[in-house]
Predict the structure of ABC transporter ATP-binding protein.
Amino acid sequence: MLEVNDLHVSYGAVNAVRGVSMSASAGRITLVLGSNGAGKTTSLRAIHGLLKARSGSVKLDGKEILGRSAHRQVRQGVVMVPEGRRIFPSLTVEENLRMGAYTVSRPDAQRTVAGIYEKFPILSERRSMPGGLLSGGEQQMLAFGRAMMSQPKVVLLDEPSMGLAPGMVDRVMSRVREMADTGIAVLMVEQNADAALAVADDVVLVQRGEVVWTGTAENAQSDTALVHAFLGEAALA
Ligand SMILES: Nc1ncnc2c1ncn2[C@@H]1O[C@H](COP(=O)(O)OP(=O)(O)OP(=O)(O)O)[C@@H](O)[C@H]1O
Ligand SMILES: [Mg+2]
């Protein structure tokens, strides 16, 4: 379980994240919604040690991890799939997967790759192909697969559906659901509210660096006034 409490992050004089609290539990998807510039990416990056937080707390199973590097966090079971996926375009699919396995032993990595190929047959078919030649949806599968290589407890996802063809969005969301169903705690930022709400368990709405609403996905879906107020018409399209 990941518990974020009263997180503050600034860029110089800009207080981008002002006292954000949220959590992610095993087997559940916590969806972070909010308009452009709300502070979603900043929160994820600070949680994962890629940005320095001004103050706050991030606990993994009760232990403070705020300030630990991303590298150390991966060893402890927290991994992030960044916005834009960031796969290595010139490395093959298999090499990309193995890049995610630096924290596990070789035989473990071998088994994990096999498990990922089973789950994502398309990656198995394309295992010798440069990652850059995959479609956007396939690259997202590769980024998920790479994240799974470290056998994480918590996965942080920043806009996994960004830039994908509309038909791919639901499929990517189903994969996120499957990920959580294996017992992983997922903390997902996603602008595609409709598709994301369909798979999420819990929702955190962030506006101008602050949490303005939390509740279940079910309640968020039925509270159309809330969705309109904070996300606009586009969110309900
Ligand atoms: N490197 C930076 N330097 C200065 N300000 C930044 C930097 N990165 C982000 N910001 C500012 O911090 C605020 C939060 O940005 P952030 O990227 O976290 O928002 P977001 O919710 O992820 O938005 P988006 O939906 O566009 O991805 C914004 O006002 C943004 O302009
Ligand atoms: Mg962002």
In short: Residues 205 and 213 are 5 Å apart (CA to CA). Residues 11, 14, 16, 34, 36-42, 191 surround adenosine-5'-triphosphate (ligand 1) (CB under 6 Å).
